[in-house]
Write a structure and sequence with these properties.
mainly alpha; 4 helices; about 160 residues; elongated
């Protein structure tokens, strides 16, 4: 493996971690706004905690829980970056089957979040010339099929978001 490839992978990994952190920080705040109580140590989250937070936020009617555009972009980038890194490490035989499975599970969890968390609706400049009005919010009506058959997925309901 060349030095350029190693530098590229390091940069990709750094970006993945940054984008994942942006999403997880927003999710934590949104979950707390919906009544999430942290029973563990601050900052330590299991995939089960993250799945429960996603479920809580996706079913909340709190306007603060609509995922902002920048967080949505960070989440999409985290998913794509994690897939790229997983594929690279798998192709170079630098990961174990367990590691690959764990990464695939976490990627599936992030994809689930992308599908079920409500997004802010963008304003149409032609319809909203008066900037004094707040933007209209909408919750996407998406369905979800479980990408991973795992015991933690019982925490994630497959219900559609109701407005």
């Amino acid at each position: 493996m060349s030095a350029t490839q190693i530098q590229s992978v390091r940069l990709q990994h750094k970006n993945v971690k940054r984008n994942t952190r942006i999403f997880k920080q927003w999710l934590e705040a949104a979950a707390k706004a919906s009544g999430w109580i942290n029973f563990g140590h601050e900052g330590e989250r299991t995939t089960g905690d993250i799945a429960a937070q996603i479920e809580l936020v996706s079913n909340s009617q709190c306007e603060a829980n609509f995922i902002p555009a920048d967080v949505h972009v960070a989440l999409r980038n985290a998913i794509e970056g994690r897939k790229t890194c997983k594929d690279f490490f798998q192709a170079k035989r630098l990961s174990t089957q367990r590691s690959t499975t764990e990464h695939s599970h976490f990627i599936a969890l992030l994809e689930h979040a992308l599908n079920v968390l409500p997004r802010q609706k963008r304003e149409d400049p032609e319809l909203h010339r008066d900037r004094h009005h707040s933007s209209t919010l909408e919750a996407p009506m998406t369905s979800f099929s479980s990408p991973v058959n795992d015991s933690e997925w019982h925490l994630v309901s497959r219900k559609r978001r109701r407005s």
